[in-house]
Amino acid sequence: MTIQLEANLQNLRAKAPLVHNITNFVVMNFTANALLAIGASPVMAHAVEEVEDMVSIAGALVVNIGTLSPLWVEGMHSAMAKAAQTGKPIVLDPVGAGATPYRNNVLTALLEAAPPAIIRGNGSEILALAGASIQTKGVDSTADSTDSIGAARALSERFGSVVSVSGAVDVIVHGNRTAWISNGVPLMTKVTGMGCSASALAGAFAAVVTDPFEAAVSAAVTMGVCGELAYRAAKLPGSFQIAFLDTLSDISPAHLAELSKIRLE
Amino acid sequence: MTIQLEANLQNLRAKAPLVHNITNFVVMNFTANALLAIGASPVMAHAVEEVEDMVSIAGALVVNIGTLSPLWVEGMHSAMAKAAQTGKPIVLDPVGAGATPYRNNVLTALLEAAPPAIIRGNGSEILALAGASIQTKGVDSTADSTDSIGAARALSERFGSVVSVSGAVDVIVHGNRTAWISNGVPLMTKVTGMGCSASALAGAFAAVVTDPFEAAVSAAVTMGVCGELAYRAAKLPGSFQIAFLDTLSDISPAHLAELSKIRLE
Amino acid sequence: MTIQLEANLQNLRAKAPLVHNITNFVVMNFTANALLAIGASPVMAHAVEEVEDMVSIAGALVVNIGTLSPLWVEGMHSAMAKAAQTGKPIVLDPVGAGATPYRNNVLTALLEAAPPAIIRGNGSEILALAGASIQTKGVDSTADSTDSIGAARALSERFGSVVSVSGAVDVIVHGNRTAWISNGVPLMTKVTGMGCSASALAGAFAAVVTDPFEAAVSAAVTMGVCGELAYRAAKLPGSFQIAFLDTLSDISPAHLAELSKIRLE
Q: Can you tell me which residues bind ATP (chains A, B, C) (predicted)?
């Protein structure tokens, strides 16, 4: 197993996939610009009146619950059901999982209704998501979910999803496959929307790469490598976010592959 | 016919018109900053409970359907009706026209209820809008709407609106008048909200310039010239969007006029 | 009475308080980034289904009515009631007070239901807020509210709140205490979300400083000093907003105290 980073980024830029985002108010602008910068084509639409039509013309669906409310959740359900029905990969970003019962309930219902190709969150979100959607429902799991990697394995086993856990080292699991990605810089946690953009890029790669594990790894590496390059140019968060967008646009597929630090198992 | 670019920008900055925007979540921040940078005063308000009062104190209304939903559409209808009744110019940006039936239906209803002074979109949106609002209703048109300029003429004829079509060359039509504007750079398509800001600037100019055709041309030239100047400073999309805002604020009316590339017919 | 600026900023960064924001669509991204840059931890959540749970885990609540609508107002009421009940400081930003009757009515109801620790607005908003919530209700006030400082005193007397009036000189009143802060630069009025970020920072300081007057002064000084430092690096609004975020992150507590220009009475 190897990850074709160079080919995958070339492919993304050649196809410029339409990525349908139902995401939060805080990050919409940054996410749209990140998708444009890497070479994808973003569209944001959330109304139940049109999400089925929109996802039907998209290459992937990214659902992010950051600023959720009932009408938006209704749109998420419709869009995810249509995506599942038409074979479009779904990326779910469980922002703030564990913070409130409402988030946990919404996430559990979304996961049950249409299992995502990729779930991407930070460690505490993945832990909370596994707790809410598996343990609290009394579903047995052979995986140990007392840490975030165990939780990721449990979620992957239960829903068949690739689970991508962002952190100082990103860990991505699917079945018996695991990737550790050591790219990235701590400053990325000081800019809002970095995690959400990681999910959006996972959607962009999933739209053009058949294997969602490979798509998730490609997205995580792209985030991390571009974070490192941006940090060479900008050490403070305002200018860093701008340098990051510049880097997404400027990086060559060969350079991406060259700077990647992936361990596969 | 000439376009008084220098006087129009001076006028805009002297009057700092209040521009009422009902726009999409993705671009609200960038649009507000673009309006502030050029010298206007932005306000965003969408609730049906207050849009009539807000548009009553504004100099122009900009409606952009990018992330539409029923409650927002209700606010758009109220605001447009009040704007029409009180003689405030309306700019309509049909974001994503043609992407879903819901968008087409909403746009058709908005156009019928309160014809805008200016409609601004890209070629495919203008084509889709003409298709949805004219052809599908069986309304005869003498204009050929098989290309975007023909579609623009058909829309202009049907609704009395100035129609501004953004592209490599912007084309603006109204009755028997046409302007071709050759300013701008391709990188503008890689930053989200550039088109939406073009519509917002059209609203700002329309608030201070009597002739909506002249307002639309002034806005398109301002976008294009500032895009060219920003590109001299920044060749990548993150830093380009920042340089663009800087340029909107910094450009002198004389410099704007000097760099304009307009052909009128 | 002195303001422990250095200790307060150290304290904020050491504790990284969770600040719950119910704010407007235009500024959410900038506000979240400003909170991250200064060292706080932002969360945005507005649905009535979860705001009580969210405010319960937060250190402060910031309510900003910029793009209000009935469902959001419902969330504001729930969150403010829960904050009052659990002793979490509330900051209220009355964006656009006076612009429409709907805004005035919503603000009056919010003030009556749960008096904020801090009210922060510009002069015209504070004047309008006092007019709507005091004068129009026939409540006697010993304060002269014909100017914004008089209005601030009247609001402070009526609701027990610290009232922070942003302007060329910021004025902050509470009971018989007044602070005049002469930091800041005019360019701050040309970037959207600066006032909203001032309110968010007031929430961050209020989460870690017991006296809300001291929290409000610390926030206003932080905004003003960082604005001055950012202006040394960037004289135009696009790059200024980026330099401002950089400065929030980079400024040392000692430097903040050194550059502060406060007059207390």
A: 120, 166
pLDDT at B139: 41
Whether residues C100 and B54 touch (CB distance < 8 A) is answered with: yes
Q: List strands edge to edge, sheet with A60-64.
A: A41-44, A18-22, A60-64, A90-93, A118-122, A162-166, A170-174, A177-181, A262-264
Question: Could you give phi then psi for residue C178, rounded to 5 degrees?
Answer: -140, 140
Question: How confident is the model at residue C132, as a pLDDT?
Answer: 86
Give the minimum alpha-carbon distance from C135 to chain A in angstroms, rounded to a whole number: 36
pLDDT digits (tens, 9 = 90+) for B152-204: 999 999 999 999 999 999 999 999 999 999 999 999 999 999 999 999 999 99
Mean pLDDT of chain C, nearest integer: 95
Using CA coordinates, name the residue in chain C closest to B250: C236
Task: Reply yes or no on whether the pLDDT at B86 is more than 90.
Answer: yes
Whole-prediction pTM value? Answer: 0.96
If you average pLDDT over residues C196-219, what whole number do you get? 98
Give the burial string for C131-149 (b: 16+ CB within 10 Å, else e).
bbbbeeeeeebebebeebb
Question: What is the full DSSP assignment across B62-87?
Answer: EEE-TT--HHHHHHHHHHHHHHHHHT
C-beta atoms of C238 and B33 within 8 A: yes
Tell me the C-alpha distance between A245 and A228, whole Å: 12
| Mean residue pLDDT across chain A | 95
Residue C54 in contact with partner chain A when CB distance is under 8 A: yes
**Residue C76 marked as a ligand binder:** no
Residue B230 to chain A, least CA–CA distance (Å): 14
Residue B50 touches partner C, C-beta closer than 8 Å? yes
Please list every residue in chain A whose beta carbon sits closer than 8 Å to the beta carbon of residue B75: none
Task: Say what angle helices C237-250 and B28-38 make with each other, to 10 degrees.
Answer: 120
Q: Which CATH architecture has domain A5-264?
A: 3-Layer(aba) Sandwich (3.40)
Chain B 62-91, residues with CB within 8 Å of chain C CB atoms: 71
* Consecutive H or E run containing A60: strand A60-64
Q: What percent of chain C has pLDDT over 70?
A: 95
Interchain proximity B101–A53, CB inside 8 Å: yes
CB pairs under 8 A between A and C: 79
Q: Classify residue C19 by burial, with Cβ atoms within 10 Å: 0-12, 13-18, 19+.
A: buried
Q: Kindly list the residues from chain A whose CB atom is less than 8 angstroms away from the CB atom of residue C42.
A: 192
Question: Which residues of chain A register pLDDT less than 70?
Answer: 1, 135-146
